[in-house]
Design goal:
The protein has 310 residues and is of the alpha+beta class. The chain contains eleven helices and eight strands.
């Protein structure tokens, strides 16, 4: 089972105590998975999803909020099945649509893909429930071992903007990108995804995600440290090789007897210890010299070698 499926499975088994939160979550499922078919004086409401957890949660919410128990049918499409809940009884359709504010008091039907009524999202707990239903219905996330990416796919721009605004109200940075004909709200940062999982109360998934983040961050930190140390070693070896080459050139073309005492001693020590770091070289001098003093003398030797070559 993918990590995304694990999150949805956890969300599908949650049971919210407050009815207004249950209605907000149900509204999100209808918002993303519902469709209306108007036939003369009747309206047929269909909720369709490819994921079983979505339909299972919808079934639970319908029972708790409106005391409606209905049948679930499965339609086979290729290798995958599509789960359907269809409402034809007009009293049930009316209760559901009015309760989720898709049917106005004057009988006007709102577009299910339009933004959900703000009346349902007044409190932060209802906003959490709405985001939970949105992720269940149209969300997905990548395996945190590989990359950090969470998204909710919307059919209309207003849908995406509403989700983005709610996420911003919780302090989560989310962006919108157009992919083909869809508007995708996405989060790329690990901290933002962790916050999102906490907001929708997927606490088990959040802890698992944080464990992945800790291991991944530690691995990246070790890799950066190794790369840095490797680069430093490479730089040190390269510098020592050039210093040795310059000193040998001076010995042949200039003569150590022509060097000042400090530089002559430094040249001899470097040839004797070609791989030693600067601090160690300074300890071999008499009197001992610090790292900066050793670096200064070696630089003087290299500059002199360049002048002799010139």
């Amino acid at each position: 089972m993918s990590f995304s499926s694990q999150v949805k499975e956890e969300l599908s088994r949650q049971e919210n105590g407050a009815r207004h939160c249950q209605i907000a979550e149900l509204a999100a499922i209808i918002h993303f998975c519902g469709s209306l078919n108007c036939q003369q004086q009747s309206v047929i409401l269909t909720i369709q999803a490819e994921n079983e957890p979505v339909i299972r949660k919808c079934f639970t919410l319908l029972k708790k909020t409106f005391n409606i128990i209905t049948d679930i049918s499965i339609s086979q499409h290729g290798k995958t099945g599509v789960y359907l809940i269809r409402f034809t009884q007009q009293d049930q359709v009316k209760r559901i649509l009015q309760g989720t504010h898709f049917l106005e008091q004057d009988g006007t039907l709102r577009d299910l893909r339009d933004s959900v009524s703000s009346m349902l999202l007044k409190s932060s707990c209802c906003q959490r429930a709405f985001l939970r239903g949105a992720f269940l219905s149209a969300g997905s996330m990548s395996d945190p071992e590989k990359s950090y990416h969470l998204e909710i796919v919307c059919q209309k721009e207003r849908q995406a903007e509403q989700i983005q605004q709610i996420l911003h109200s919780f302090g989560v940075e989310a962006r919108i990108i157009v992919r083909k004909k869809y508007y995708v709200v996405y989060i790329k940062e690990g901290s933002g995804i962790s916050d999102f999982l906490n907001i929708i109360e997927a606490h088990v998934a959040m802890m698992d995600f944080e464990n992945y983040r800790i291991v991944k961050d530690m691995r990246n930190s070790i890799n950066r440290r190794v790369n840095c140390e490797t680069a430093n070693i490479s730089k040190t070896v390269s510098a020592a090789s050039r210093q040795t080459e310059d000193i040998l050139y001076l010995k042949e073309k200039y003569g150590f007897e022509n060097l000042p005492e400090g530089l002559r001693q430094m040249a001899q020590i470097r040839l004797e210890y070609p791989d030693a770091p600067l601090r160690e070289l300074g300890g071999y001098l008499n009197p001992p010299v610090g790292k900066s003093g050793v670096n200064h003398r070696l630089r003087k030797l290299c500059e002199l070698a360049d002048r002799v070559r010139g």
